[in-house]
Amino acid sequence: VWKDGTRAIDKDVPDVTKSIINHVNTSLARQAYNIDDMGAYQAVALAARDDLLINWNETQLNYTRKAPKRAYYLSLEFLMGRTLDNALLNLGLKDNFTQGVDKLGFNIEDIIDKERDAALGNGGLGRLAACYLDSSASQELPVWGYGLRYKYGIFQQLIAPDGSQLEAPDPWLEHSNPWELPRVDVTIDVRFYGHAERLDNGKAIWSGGQEVLAVAYDVMIPGYHTKTTNNLRLWESKPKRGFDLNSFNAGDYEKAVQSSNSAETITSVLYPNDNTMVGKELRLKQQYFWTAASLNDIMRRFKNYGKPITEFPEYVAIQLNDTHPTLAIPELMRLLVDEEDVPWDKAWSIVTSTFFFTNHTVLPEALEKWPVPLMQHLLPRHMQIIFDLNLTFLQAVEKKFPGDRDRLARMSLIQEGYPQYVRMANLACIGSRRVNGVAELHSELVKTTIMKDFVEFFGVSKFSNVTNGITPRRWLDQCNPALSTLITETLGCTKNEWLKDLYKLEGLLKHVDDPKFQKKWAAIKQSNKERLAHHVEVTLGIKINTKAMFDVQIKRLHEYKRQTLNLLGVVHRYLALKKMTPEQRKKINPRVVFFAGKAAPGYYIAKLTIRLIVNVARVINADPDTKDYLSMFFLPDYSVTLAEILIPASDLSQHISTAGTEASGTSNMKFCLNGGLLLGTVDGANIEIAEEVGDSNVFFFGHLTPAVEELRYQHTYHPVPVEEKCPALAAVLDEISAGRFGDGSVYEPLLNTIRQGDYYLLTEDFDSYIQALSMVDAAYQDRTEWIKKSIRTTAKMGKFSSDRAILTYAEEFWNIEACKVP
Ligand code: 26Q
């Protein structure tokens, strides 16, 4: 029985073994005595799925009966990772399954390890969506996710012999996926191309073109210790008609299957770009296919409530995860005006009461814009709607700011030129009730930069902040079970209580000075470091000194995230070590620096950065003078699952973006929750983390956001050579150029981004970065003080639970309430 009085699923150990054996015999059609770990995983997953399904059915039935207002989270990315361990923990069945599996002669951790990640996302934005689903279900909120069922998730990363990144496909569905339920009965027609004919009063008829089927696959999302099990609906594209019979009968088989192939292509692969816009037609097709199918589905469900269409916003809230689903705005207009006969103005008021828009970046290269000719061709009716909306909108702007032509040009949904472009952020803004950023600083930047004109037009109250969060279930209880147990013992409340009210972690502060507690805390960190070292030894065949400080930077490769700064810092340290005598070196604390992360396949500089990291690592790790004091690793194929091993093992993590560029960051929260200290710039959520834990428990460096613009101006119009600006950095660059880490000419394009222009301001921040690293070294010398900082950090992470974030969305934006399963 859970604390709230609801019953957990009853499944004792004999029930568990019975159910697993049953699935081996029936679902897998195999013999129980002849099963390997992979077969065992499949049977165990099916056994857990049975329990999820019971809860899922009851939850959905309850929603249908009670007909509450619902919220929908539209995201092109859901970076879920593995499911089995999470499902067992949320169901409260981990112990019984562990024992049951043991009785059958297997080890639960080995079985868990057989599952492939569901990697339907690039990075932060996709993982945030996954954390929000976990929190919605855990808070018993009627929230569904909508996304695409990509056949291939984010590519697998390999490292070539020369150190560069190679990409391989991620066929994650090769083995059947027990966590999805195909809903062949839920299919929706989606139209592309064709012709839109205007009628009176704003209506039109859209016909012809290509029709594609969207087929629903449902993924169960269990809440932590609650019956509520929500739904993530992913769409797969399918041809509407098998193949073109006319061509087939004429003997042209290639042409006969062409159009069905093009239908299947839509959901074949996740675009591997993160924080850069790529203007490919297929990507726009994905966006429309997904928003059209989702809105149609949402509309059908709303109609089952039997309410008048004008009450749509009383029962439906839709959150747009960045601009990727912005086509949902003209699509809902089309459904209301063309298909439901709602007058244009009424339709617009329904639309603008339904949508909410989250912005995740202010970087200009990441803001989505689509060529008008492309959109006209693919979605002729939507292009009409956008032009009509724009006309009315610009008239209103003109009325409020008469004669301000520059303002009109900036605010227009259309960027003029040849070709014209549709500005998706502007459309998302005018079509939504509220707009939010993802951390305090970022939300201020949204208001003062990309949305400044819109703040002046709509008023500031439309714009706000919801600082991101992470689920403590996956990012502490699941990935760091020993720490979770120690916390539960220490706090004197149940695990359920603190995992659902993370502010309770503050209770750890009482124990900061207790040497026994400190010792246990340190021992857990140590064993997590050994777990990581073991993993690296098994997968890469490399031995790691676990007595060293583990210093970790894991995130997508991007110039603004400045992995290069970290790398150049390591080279600087290496050169300094080389100059020391053996006696001097002995005083140095050994350090192991870990990097991991993928580069977009078309991002040349990011890929070159990986290549340099790998080749610097080779030289440093092989140098007998220094290798006991400094080593460095690039761990290939970063994933949610690898993060779950790396994060609990880190002493220090780096979040060192140029101030004002990282909207929030969420791994910073994960490291701190696991007692890793933070080395970072005054950017994104780093600032709020420091506010919580206190300045003395984080290591900050670098210029602040307001300085960045001025410095960039200086770099452009009054450049100063690196040798003058920052001699220490110039020396490092020269060593690389001179070939100390392999042919230096290979890296010139990367080094030149710093020597010329230096848009991300490495030369401005290098000295203070090196200084911050020395302060880290000094702090690590006093191990007891370090452990205290670590405890204090974890204790103050309450704010960063995604439960807090999702409740803010639910209460302040969506106006939805918990809907408990009776
Ligand atoms: C857009 C158009 C075409 C192709 C790809 C894209 C695209 C895809 C992914 C643009 C952006 C993304 C992903 C962005 C992202 O992950 N942003 C991160 O979001 C996190 C959650 O809010 C923040 O913590 C990070 O700071 C932010 O970088």
UniProtKB/TrEMBL annotation:
<feature type="modified residue" description="N6-(pyridoxal phosphate)lysine">
    <location>
        <position position="670"/>
    </location>
</feature>
<dbReference type="InterPro" id="IPR011833">
    <property type="entry name" value="Glycg_phsphrylas"/>
</dbReference>
<comment type="similarity">
    <text>Belongs to the glycogen phosphorylase family.</text>
</comment>
<keyword id="KW-0663">Pyridoxal phosphate</keyword>
<keyword id="KW-0119">Carbohydrate metabolism</keyword>
<keyword id="KW-0328">Glycosyltransferase</keyword>
<comment type="function">
    <text>Allosteric enzyme that catalyzes the rate-limiting step in glycogen catabolism, the phosphorolytic cleavage of glycogen to produce glucose-1-phosphate, and plays a central role in maintaining cellular and organismal glucose homeostasis.</text>
</comment>
<dbReference type="GO" id="GO:0030170">
    <property type="term" value="F:pyridoxal phosphate binding"/>
</dbReference>
<dbReference type="GO" id="GO:0005980">
    <property type="term" value="P:glycogen catabolic process"/>
</dbReference>
<dbReference type="InterPro" id="IPR035090">
    <property type="entry name" value="Pyridoxal_P_attach_site"/>
</dbReference>
<dbReference type="Pfam" id="PF00343">
    <property type="entry name" value="Phosphorylase"/>
</dbReference>
<protein>
    <recommendedName>
        <fullName>Alpha-1,4 glucan phosphorylase</fullName>
        <ecNumber>2.4.1.1</ecNumber>
    </recommendedName>
</protein>
<keyword id="KW-0808">Transferase</keyword>
<dbReference type="GO" id="GO:0005737">
    <property type="term" value="C:cytoplasm"/>
</dbReference>
<keyword id="KW-0021">Allosteric enzyme</keyword>
<dbReference type="GO" id="GO:0008184">
    <property type="term" value="F:glycogen phosphorylase activity"/>
</dbReference>
<dbReference type="InterPro" id="IPR000811">
    <property type="entry name" value="Glyco_trans_35"/>
</dbReference>
